[in-house]
Amino acid sequence: MNTAAAQPDQPQEVTFDDALQMAVQLHRNNQLEGAVQLYQRLLEAVPGHPDVLHLMGMARHQMGQSDEGVSLIERAIEAEPNYAGYFNNLGNIYMARGEVAKALGAYQQAVELDQGNADLHNNLGALYKAQRQFDQAHASYERAMQLDPRHVSAHNNMGLLYAEKGDRPGAITYYIKALELLPGDSSARRLLGTTYYAMGRIADAGEVYRQWLEQEPEHPTARHMYAACTGQGVPERAPDDYVEQAFDHFAESFESVLNERLNYQAPQLCADMLARHLPPPQHQFVMLDAGCGTGLCGPLMAPWARALAGVDLSKGMLDRAQTKGVYSDLYKAELTEFLHLSPRQWDVVLSADTLCYFGDLGKVIQESANSLKPGGTLVFTVEALPDEAELAHQIQPHGRYAHHQQHIVEVLSAAGLSLLDMEGVILREEGGKPVNGWLVAARQLA
Model pTM? Predict the structure, then answer.
């Protein structure tokens, strides 16, 4: 009898490389806790392993612990100072944190180590553009395209650079070239449509979205923006999939674009309105940041907050809001439904630049009223239709809705809210022109 064959199977030893691949797969599947645990075990086996330090640094950053992420990647660089990828991802983290000067230094070092890498030149160009060093940005994008003539992102970024410099026809040339290189590129289509809109060429923008819809009939951006530019098939509010996709895409650059290029005022305006209608802040209220985005309103609301929650449809935005360190809870949900499920819960509901994604405000204002405690306060902004407009609300070619003052008064009254204050304000700039809006405060008296 062959006794060896009767023995139970022996456990297979997992090699270091096999375990690393398992950790990377967990990381790719966004199972970050499990990935980090395995990275830590790998570092116990091989202390100071640069790849593991680097990967764990990226995971820690994704978990909202970017200080630790930076420290880990810096240790990886100490162990392997000639690998460009470590510097590139360090630059990505700094960029996500808004530390542009540090990001620029990291990207420059990455390019120095790997000068033939088109992606690195493209990233460096984006940093130069963020610092308004336009000549250096142009040179970096040119170098990326020389190294890889089919580099679609470099063409799109060059278009963005031309647009930033006020040369929209030049921008269009690069977006069209990007579409020639990759006919299905959604970024180029979106940028081309947006640029035509900014130039007042609404029909051309609509044609871009029509062609996009022909190829991708269910694409949420194409569908919504076609409706916005043509007035055909306009939804009651911006669809959830459009909002989620648009803001997930926009999350990383959201704050820099709004603050540096669009002179964004809505969060501060809302905070000023709170100060006018609330008692001095003593961390006394349960508050909701409704449509919190990346959390720009959170630090402004925090002095009044005993507890501060945020809700948004975009996970990318919520991930950024988490880093503000002021929210006790963050929820991924559609706003009207979330408010419906939280009756009489909030002392204050604040919504900056979110209700512009709704047409008729009746339902969302009613649910806001129902979610407030007696005596609770609602503060919000919307974009303004001119006084002479005959419609209560209207979608605009940029995809947001504008509202007539009378519509706001009517829906507040119907919801049982007492209007405290309504002020005409400038919310931001767009295409070099001010975006007019209404800043509103109301109170639940029931």
Answer: 0.78
